[in-house]
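Input structure tokens:
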């Protein structure tokens, strides 16, 4: 099986921390050279999901510090730098070299450093007689963040790339800079994978700009055979991909409904209710009457429960948490019984004691994970009950699958119910309804009724609706994108309804969702099958290995089982979950890697639409 982009990025980081000397796979450095790691915020974000503090220590990193922080001189220890090649960063490196803070400076830039910055470094080193202190300078091409084996992003920390690109007052230079940054990140992904993809993209949006620029950048690199980044494999993996991957670059504007959806699966639900950032989630908890915020880290593959359940419906997850809790309590009871046996001296067995002691670390780890997911599931359940998220999810699934709600009054009823959800929940629901109906099926009088209901529900000035309406008129969104699927209530709460359960699910619908394809998944299905029809013909074709085509719109069918899909303007965990399930269920299995400028929560995406609506009005 092909090695994931996360595995390759991790290998590159380990090589960097070994002073850019390759290490054999599966081996561990017995006596690492101790060093200091200096990074900027971008470098910190890249490393955080991949290497823990303990793992850094095992690799010889005794101290890791931010570049722009107060740092003391440690003149007998080498320093490894990992950062973006910005002017501010280069100036600070020059200061470190001039002050001779460290024994030697090993400079690793996340993306390619400019000639001007190299000259600045050389000038500083000569001026301070510190030429030998700069050991080597590397371009690492690691300008992306691997969150999971099949998931990567280019930005973190609450960025708004969709609004940035689509703002009505956005200058051409801003859009150019934004697309250039995406190209730089995707180029890093390709270099890290050691693969030259075939690229497909729709016409007339930011995705097409990205695809054109990426195609050009890869072509230019391939022309320089002496310095091509695609001819060597220093990571020890070699070229393990049987075929070249298909890279599909899409624009968020082709589907505005999916990022707004209320969802029912564990990982997307956590992102909606609690928000995920760099695989960390913050929960507000109460202890002795005092509220405090606690951060939980969701690690793969260490957290096997998360790996097995992150894509499952919430009721099934709640039941699995309860089963894990019962199992842990049983194991804990066995240890307590052994203690009683030891205390009274009856039936004492050395083997039994040894076995119990050796199982304690595993038992403690199980307790930590059980507590983590119990707390997360409890927080989710509280929000589901408080906001009636199960009701919203059920209605939205029917809307998107073209199963009519019983009548339009059902929609008005939930919009007017002060006990059902927040104003944002109501606005999200209506926007999905608005995007899912055909253009002429909603009369002006009906729309006025809905607007009035939304205002009465506290949804503010409805700027998001104005933007979506304008966007729909201009782009002619096809409502048939949202179809294929159904939702039904089934009985799966047997264990959870029994007394002694940690979760009281009464009043919450148990919804079983039929697998269906979201718009992005439908696009991937057609392009990966190599189908040539009126839909796929609208996607441009780029092959950096071939001469530029005289007819760039002419599709060249290519069936493949290895797909990378990237969304310019923000990704969604609902989308990620849906396309991953599609790939797993395909026969043969289709390997899909999902990427986006950033993963955006529904509330944050709604905020971007509102901001764009107000800019549009001004």
């Amino acid at each position: 099986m092909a090695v994931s982009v996360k595995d390759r990025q991790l290998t590159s980081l380990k090589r960097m921390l070994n002073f850019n000397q390759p290490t054999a796979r599966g081996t561990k450095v017995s006596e690492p050279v101790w060093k200091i790691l200096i990074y900027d915020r971008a470098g910190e974000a890249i490393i955080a999901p991949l290497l823990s503090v303990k793992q850094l220590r095992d690799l010889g990193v005794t101290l890791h510090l931010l570049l722009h922080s107060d740092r003391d001189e440690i003149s007998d220890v080498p320093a490894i730098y990992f950062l973006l090649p910005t002017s501010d960063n280069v100036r600070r490196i020059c200061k470190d070299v001039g002050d001779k803070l460290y024994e030697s400076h090993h400079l690793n830039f996340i993306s390619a450093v400019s000639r001007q910055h190299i000259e600045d470094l050389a000038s500083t080193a000569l001026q301070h007689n510190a030429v030998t202190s700069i050991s080597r300078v590397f371009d690492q091409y690691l300008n992306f963040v691997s969150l999971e084996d099949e998931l990567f992003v280019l930005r973190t920390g609450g960025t708004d790339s969709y609004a940035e690109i689509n703002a009505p007052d956005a200058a051409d230079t801003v859009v150019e800079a934004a697309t250039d940054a995406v190209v730089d990140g995707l180029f890093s992904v390709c270099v890290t994978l050691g693969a030259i993809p075939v690229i497909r993209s729709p016409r007339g949006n930011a995705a097409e700009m990205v695809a054109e620029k990426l195609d050009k950048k890869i072509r230019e690199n391939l022309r320089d055979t002496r310095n091509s980044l695609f001819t060597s494999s220093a990571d020890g993996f070699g070229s393990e991909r049987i075929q070249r991957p298909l890279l599909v670059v899409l624009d968020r504007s082709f589907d505005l409904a999916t990022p707004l959806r209320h969802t029912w699966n564990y990982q997307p639900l956590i992102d909606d209710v609690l928000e995920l950032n760099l695989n960390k989630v913050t929960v507000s908890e109460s202890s002795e009457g005092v509220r405090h915020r606690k951060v939980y880290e969701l690690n793969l593959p260490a957290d096997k429960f998360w790996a097995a359940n992150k894509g499952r419906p919430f009721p099934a997850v709640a039941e699995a948490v309860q089963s894990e809790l019962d199992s842990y309590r049983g194991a804990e009871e066995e240890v307590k019984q052994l203690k009683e046996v030891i205390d009274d001296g009856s039936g004492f067995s050395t083997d039994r004691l040894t076995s119990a002691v050796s199982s304690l670390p595993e038992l403690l780890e199980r307790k930590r994970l059980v507590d983590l997911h119990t707390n997360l599931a409890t927080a989710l359940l509280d929000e589901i009950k408080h906001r009636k998220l199960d009701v919203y999810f059920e209605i939205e699934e029917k809307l998107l699958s073209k199963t009519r709600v019983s009548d339009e009054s059902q929609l008005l009823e939930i919009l007017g119910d002060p006990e059902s959800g927040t104003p944002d929940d109501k606005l999200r629901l209506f926007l999905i309804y608005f995007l899912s109906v055909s253009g002429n099926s909603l009369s002006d009088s009906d729309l006025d009724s809905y607007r009035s209901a939304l205002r009465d529900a506290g949804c503010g000035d409805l700027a998001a609706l104005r933007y979506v309406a304008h966007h729909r008129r201009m782009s002619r969104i096809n409502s048939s994108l949202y179809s294929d699927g159904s939702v039904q209530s089934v009985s799966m709460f047997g264990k959870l309804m029994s007394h002694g359960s940690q979760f009281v699910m009464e009043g919450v619908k148990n919804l079983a969702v039929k697998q269906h394809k979201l718009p992005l998944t439908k696009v991937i299905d057609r392009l990966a099958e190599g189908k040539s029809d009126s839909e796929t013909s609208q996607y441009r074709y780029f092959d950096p290995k071939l001469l530029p085509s005289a007819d760039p719109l002419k599709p060249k069918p290519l069936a493949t089982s290895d797909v990378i899909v990237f969304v310019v303007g923000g990704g969604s965990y609902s989308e990620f979950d849906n396309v991953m399930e599609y790939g797993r269920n395909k026969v043969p299995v289709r390997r899909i890697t999902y990427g986006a400028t950033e993963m955006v929560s529904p509330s944050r995406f709604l905020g971007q639409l509102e901001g764009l609506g107000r800019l549009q009005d001004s």
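Confidence is low (pLDDT under 50) at residues 489-500. DSSP finds 21 helices and 17 strands in the chain.
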